[in-house]
## 1
Amino acid sequence: MGRRRPGAPTLEEVAAHAGVGRGTVSRVINNAAGVKESTRRAVQQAIEELGYVPNLAARSLAGQRADAVALVLTEPDWRQFAEPFFSEIVRSLGDALADTGMQLLLTLVRSDAERQRFLEFARGGRVDGALLVSVHDGDLLPDMLVEAGLPTVLLGRRSGDEYVSYVDADNVGGARSAVSHLLKRGRRAIATITGPLDMHVAQCRLRGYQEALAMAGLRGEPSWVAESDFTEESGRRAMAELIERHPEIDGVIAASDTTAAGALQALRAAGRRVPEDVAVIGFDDFPLAQQTEPRLTTVRQPLEEIGRAMVRLLLEEVEEPAVAWRHVILRTELVVRESA
């Protein structure tokens, strides 16, 4: 149906006319649960009186499909796209879509201008849904897409009370199992290298680390925590800082395999043996984990299963808009190798 014609009513105007918020209008348009019948009637009346027709709804009524799904990478730092995580998730999502006949369109949204441009692109009916990866706290793009009526599924979530559909790994449980493994092997001076703490995934892995220490009667002091941005260089730098703060360190859990690889470099430069002096555990179980020296013990994320689940949720919502947001959390697995 293309762009909104000049002078056509907006979602905000419908909301104001009905005396409700724009989110309520979106839920009525998508036939979502949790809206009072009186409110639903008021919104429907406002839609009729103003002649409001959402682009995506109009396309659906016309029985038209774009047969394309947007994979939206929202990481603002372009260097992150060189990390293994992105290539692995693109592969898993591509495999999951392979037999559906739908195209996977890779889109980078790293600024407000790109965010608005993609929103207009989606409103124009050029894609049937969106899969969002690497969404940081406070990013409004998922809300904007849902309000536009576009089926949307996140990899991970922005916070503990996320209401957009998502698929995630059990990051808290995975980190907790990694620290418990170190504790069982007699390690007591255990540090962690987190991911960016404006991402819920990094907060969850930090919480798992803290919970495991607390269960063992140990305190997770802030000086034993160093933040990284999931890159190898940031892992090397964070590990060097931790060694300087706590020369007695004998174990570390890193928020990604790439970060752990950087930590191994810093330990080697400091003359520390792995695992004899310091045990190291990563997170993800990318091929990189078996290429380091020594090979990394790591927490395996089921990326293929995550990709299949994301595509399944999205296609179900394309076929029939969900009455409620769906949240899927998949189990992780500790893979023990030589580094711990």
Note: Residues 93 and 307 are 5 Å apart (CA to CA).
## 2
Amino acid sequence: MTHSSNSVVFQTLGTASGKLIGVMTLNMEQALNSINLEMVQLMFAQLTRWQDDDAIAMVMLDGAGEKAFCAGGDVRAIYHASVATPGELTEQATEFFEQEYRLDYLIDTYVKPILVWGTGIVMGGGLGLMMGASHRVVTERSRIAMPEVTIGLYPDVGGSYFLNRMPGKLGLFLGLTAYNMNAADAKYVGIANYYIQDDDKQPLLDSLACLNWGDDTEVNHSLLSDELNRTGAKASAGLAKGLLETHKDNIDVLMSGSLNEIMARVSELKLKESWLARPIKTMLSGSPISLQLIYRQAQLGIDLSLAEVFRFELGLSVNCCALGDFAEGVRALLIDKDRNPQWKFNQVADVPTSLIEQMLSSPWSLASHPLAQLEEPLL
């Protein structure tokens, strides 16, 4: 059974046990399956229905076409609102980020297994969809990044939670440089927990249809885990170490100390032939405000719960749109596409501490916060 709003296709696949597999497919192939507000609302509503539907044993989330699972959020509407009312919080930014984070949080706290097929490009908001899922698959074609530094934002969608739980300074490195991870990198830092060849997707679905799904969600989680391990066993055995694992100690040294010290260190690197050349170039050309925010984000540590992280990020995200480099970054990359952003400050050291503190301060009290009611999961 299939029903669709064009932007997201929902279908259910029958299984031998009589249970159903719910499949959500992001269906904006021309836009690399970037998600807009309508898509977020559709997915949230469908996931809520499937959560309460005893016939649904598990959910799979994938993207249409060969190129991308999801390249991020479609931020054009937020851009136009920010440009129209500079310096002010906009309804468009608050509504999009609030509902996007609610969706990410629902995925993270979902009781039934959720499998994300993270092939092709997975960036920004795509990682928000992927990180909360119980079963996160990457393939030989996966290219994963948090490139927000290039548009005057910071790694949101829970980045304040998952980046700070990565080995050493790798989360900070990924945020500052927008480094493009492959499958091995993604597995090493915990973004993915399974590696499967892209061509094995259909055989996997055929196998899932034959499993003995039941009403016990824990058993269903185990059934899915076992099948993913079996399908990916050969591919995983041949997966070489990624650059992040190979160079972790060097990255830790590179990313140590204050932000000014890090900037001075990377500016002196001679990188012509190095794998680091592109990420460091991206970092040095990124928004100085964003670089400051990403550094501060890394200082949060791991004390905040996921609900607290999303409350923090909602305030910071809307502040980036009102007070930061977001509008100019989106203009340069997505609107005019001249790739020549005129940031508010020339370098990190020029950004006033008072601006960063203002951006890190929530526009709402806890009681009036749009995400005040996010429930902490029962342990």
Note: Residues 128 and 157 are 5 Å apart (CA to CA).
## 3
Amino acid sequence: MAQPPPLMELGAAVRNLQTRSRPLRFQAWRHAAHARLAPEARMVLDLIPPGGWAPTFLTSAGIGNPQELLERVRATPRSQIRKDLAHVAEWQPLPPWAHHLADDSDLLRQLCDSLNHVYEVLLSPHWGHITGEAAADRGKRMRQVLAGGMDHLLASLHPGRIRWNPPVLEIAMASGFDGDLHLDGRGLMLVPSVFGAEAPAIDIDAEPQPVLRYAISHDQPSDPPSLSVLPAHSPPPGARSPLALLLGQTRAAVLHTIAEHPGCSTKELAALVGIAPPSASEHATTLRAAQLIRTVRHRNTALHSPTTLGIALLNTPPSTAQV
């Protein structure tokens, strides 16, 4: 299991932007994104439609930080661009300009500039939130493995779309694509996704092993955490914390610890903060009532993660805090 690959998650975000699914979860994010996107974003939106296929070189499961991967797109070999576009063209029409992409360096530069712009608007302000949610989900999945083994994990990834029928993992793709993928001992990398809400996706060409993206699930789908609050920048080291003034030193430490260790249990939280488990539970209850954290249950264990409101409060600059 791994953190979301940046380009794969960006592809999911671009698709999500062009749909109306899960309005409670994404409506505020879509509204803000549409207001900030410049006309040049259209190039990326045309190549990554809400449904169907997209060129792999734009949505790969490559590992690295976002800026490194965006630079790799600029260095994509012409032969790879032709191959990816030819594959897409087998399933759906390409925008007319895309037929010249591999042979026109200025056009490719414009597309890469468009991709950078789309990343800065759709993903960059939320990347800390995305990786936090993904870390919490991975913690939950690891507990599933410990409790019920890999069978339990695979069966619970995306009910209705992913089915574990030993020894085959059956995946219902949104594209309707039908085929067999033989792992040949390579294994399968599982990556949780915030934006890949509708259906799983798989990158069969990823190295060193294929990557399966599945949507992060929430135990209370009627009240999902929203992306309407943008994570702010962390205060500089040594700055006086407005959070401690507002919540008290211990409760502020509890919130900070949950943000640093999303998906931690109450017992783990108590050990990390250095307080008794009943005290940790009491502080978590107060923070949850204030909508600064959310808690899900796995069997008899409560697992705590920060909300976007909690992250924003943690990152409030001292100069703007009012107590």
Note: The longest helix spans residues 127-156.
